[in-house]
Design goal:
With about 250 residues, the chain is α/β, with parallel strands linked by helices. The protein is built from seven helices and seven strands; from the N terminus they run βαβαβαβαβαβααβ. Bound molecules: nicotinamide-adenine-dinucleotide.
């Protein structure tokens, strides 16, 4: 309530839902996204429900954009309580075909972006007496399908970055944790001209020990918990939100 929250990649997908969830709880939500159409759409949705939101065009891999986004947040709301580093992208191709630029792009958005947003937000949290940072990693930090090297490596980097930040920033009362989602169905949470009903099969749901594919609210609820007073003893941790998929042993 009254908290100022930045959600990177808050225009679509999981971030779209996280932004709405925090706004419903009375937070002032900055949507930092590279996609203007999606970001403005979510800002307007939150405002239409009586919430407070500001979209700032941001490519999290660009230092000038991140600095500008943090400045605009401080100008609008005067402080930053929570940063959710959610913006993330995948890579195409295989190790045989993928140009190195693709590796750089994924690492720059997912890993450099997470570090850079934390770097420029942390001083404001310190000056405000503390804060909470949540980095959205992935279960792909721990297991892989073929041809996901840049994505998996970036997410593994985020896990290590999380404990490193948690220690550095502990002296300023800033808690830093990561969430590793598994399969989260986001097709309904795209900007309106792209959103579509998910085409999930029974098999998709039943292969999860929890009996269903994940939803953005599963991740948003984990964010709410990690930001709450109840989680004040949790820092440097990684919370897996995957319906049990990474602990399921498979023999064929
Ligand atoms: P999405 O593609 O639906 O949404 C990502 C959002 O980030 C979009 O609004 C996009 O415009 C924005 N974005 C992309 N590049 C950006 C940049 N450079 N700067 C700022 N914003 C940028 O993705 P999603 O499925 O909602 O994923 C959100 C996060 O959750 C990502 O970090 C992703 O890796 C992670 N994740 C997703 C799943 C899943 O199954 N959906 C699973 C594990 C982890």
């Amino acid at each position: 309530n009254g908290k100022v929250v930045i959600v990177t990649g808050g225009g679509q997908g999981i971030g779209r839902f996280i932004a709405r969830t925090f706004a419903e709880k009375g937070a002032k939500v900055v949507i930092a996204d590279i996609d203007d159409e999606a970001g403005i759409e979510n800002e307007e949705y939150i405002k239409s429900k009586g919430g407070d939101s500001l979209f700032v065009h941001t490519d999290v891999s660009l230092e000038e954009d991140v600095k500008n986004m943090v400045d605009k947040t401080i100008k609008a709301y005067g402080k930053i309580d929570i940063l959710i580093n959610n913006a993330g992208i995948g890579a195409g191709g295989t190790i045989y075909t993928r140009p190195m630029e693709e590796w750089d792009r994924v690492i720059n958005v997912n890993l450099r972006g997470t570090y850079m947003c934390s770097k420029y937000v942390a001083p404001h949290m310190r000056d405000n007496g503390g804060g909470v940072i949540i980095n959205i990693a992935s279960t792909r930090a721990f297991m892989s399908e073929p041809h996901t090297e840049p994505y998996s490596a970036s997410k593994g980097g985020i896990i290590a970055l999380t404990h490193s930040l948690a220690i550095s920033l502990s002296y300023d009362k800033i808690r830093v944790n990561s969430i590793s989602p598994g399969w989260i169905e986001v097709s309904e949470w795209k900007k309106s001209r792209e959103a579509k009903k998910p085409q999930l099969t029974e098999e998709d749901h039943l292969q999860h020990p929890a009996g269903r594919v994940g939803k953005p609210e599963d991740v948003a609820n984990a964010c709410l918990f990690l930001c709450s007073e109840e989680a004040s003893f949790i820092t440097g941790a990684n919370l897996i939100v995957d319906g049990g998929m990474t602990v399921k042993m498979i023999y064929v």
